[in-house]
Specification:
It is a single chain. The protein is an alpha/beta fold and 612 residues long. 28% of the residues lie in helices and 24% in strands. The chain is built from 15 helices and 28 strands. The strands form seven sheets. A seven-stranded mixed β-sheet has the order 6-27-26-17-18-19-28, with helices on both faces. Strand 12 and strand 13 form a beta hairpin. Helix 8 crosses helix 12, helix 10 crosses helix 14 and helix 12 crosses helix 13. The chain is globular. 47% of the residues are buried.
Amino acid sequence: MAAEVRINASCGGDGTCGKCRVIIDKGSVKREPSPVLSQEEIVEGYALACRTLITEDLEVRIPPESRLGKIAEKERPQPTCGHLISSAEWEERLASFAFDPPFRKIYLNLPQPTLDDNISDWQRLKRELGKNGIKSNEIELPVLMSLAGVLREGNWQVTATVLQQENGCKVIKVEASDTTATHYAIAVDVGTTTVVAQLIDIVTGRTMGKRSSFNAQASCGEDVISRIIFSTKDKGLEKLQSLIVGTINKLIRELVKELDVNPNHICGILAAGNTTMTQLLFGFDPRYIREEPYIPTTTLFPWVRASEVGIEVAGHTCLYCFPCVASYIGGDITSGVIVSRMAESDSLTLFIDIGTNGEIVLGGKDWLVSCSCSAGPAFEGGGVKHGMQATRGAIEQVRIDRDNWEPMIITVGRVKPAGICGTGIIDVIAELFLSKAINQKGKFNLEIDSPRIRKGEFGPEYVLVWAEDSASGADIVLSEADVENLIRAKAAVFAGINILIESVSLDLTDIEEIIIAGAFGNYLEIEKVVTIGLLPELPCEKFTFIGNGSILGAHAAVQSQAVFKEAEAVAKKMTYLELSTNTKFMDQYISALFLPHTNIEKFPRVLDQLEK
């Protein structure tokens, strides 16, 4: 951590995932017992970073499969099925929101006090703001404390920064002279895996720059449940809060340095994240989110000074987080629903954000109903023997020859493969199923005459990459257990979709549009996710990819207080169904534990491909 060398840590230090393997080249250590390291590996110098006590100076080598590389930044081409909203289309959508930022800078030329006009400095400022259409009822204490000096330093010519609220405006900063030309805000997507930040010019609404980074909390666990558990350990909550704040601080530092922006001119931060991530950002105890009846500390968040939670910005900079709906439907979903215009649509729309949780919203302008499915980390490479995040070297696309079962693979960065990410896992399972190498239950056909389908140390497996062709020098395989993990994950999402549809007495065929959100969802191939039964088989034209709706909604709120006001209305409007207590969910889930489903007739196109 101190050297800023990041390694995979899926299980949060429990020693069960085996993703943090390192090689001790020099020095001795004390290893705690672990079921994921063989005696042969220990002899070769392997150790789990999370279960190893350093007893002296060491030389440690981190193999490629254990490294947490840089996030892959790339433009996705239009998919063959469905429509990907382009950058130009998003610019148009953002422009369609009324440009009325919640933050305003107003230049004022105040009349100097006289014996005849001897009201207080604050009253004088309020009066002049009123002449400019600003009804100001409040002023921050630190601003009031320095007001007398600033007014006189500027010879009564000052710039007031105000935060516009429903009950009036609050003055959060007063500067000498005219500074209205420099006015910025930050939009942040506080993701479980990745944190994204945009620096926005509030004067023009233009995005000046964007940076992203892995959430440093990953060292405490890959998914929200692991992090909630970690928060209950000694000083665990304090560490988690420090790590997410540190990640945001890093991104802000990079942005202001790259764009040569004075951080003192950043007036606000608009953030969106799932419920657990938002609670951890504020330092709220999240433990009750995972305990029945699943209650977070709050779902509505007040404006606060960003510095109060540890974000390294000027003292006047405000922080606001998008409202959540429930323990497992967060502000990132509220943000995505708003920016997708789903909440204004006459069409019956299904909104899906697929990640470690599958968050699903169904409805339109009159009503919204939602649920969350615990999909686990399989879609992001977790819980898979050679799974990894979509960083350099990850296998992201797979095609398998139907005659000889030989694979064609594409990796992120087009380099030697180090592992396989979520989209690659979906691809290879779909391809293995269509080539009849696995059956509906995900079991391998060991009668196939191919060296790639074999019995491995932990059961049947398919060899994607031979050792001599991999970055790690070891075979990269997909095991039967890995297939089962993904089937369980996709079954949870498909079951959730069906429960929502049933709850409003409708049918899958009634859905007019499916919106797929999230960084992972943005790279899915509809044909493949339908083949494995993750999404229902519907016409291509019904699918729309919006990408990271969380950051886009945060950006929209920066430039339009109408979005900011709509967020609470949409969150309150959204009915939440708790699936863990839904008696019908388990029936739907069990039916979906097949490829693509126990009732394969629901997938006629897939059935047709199998019969060819």
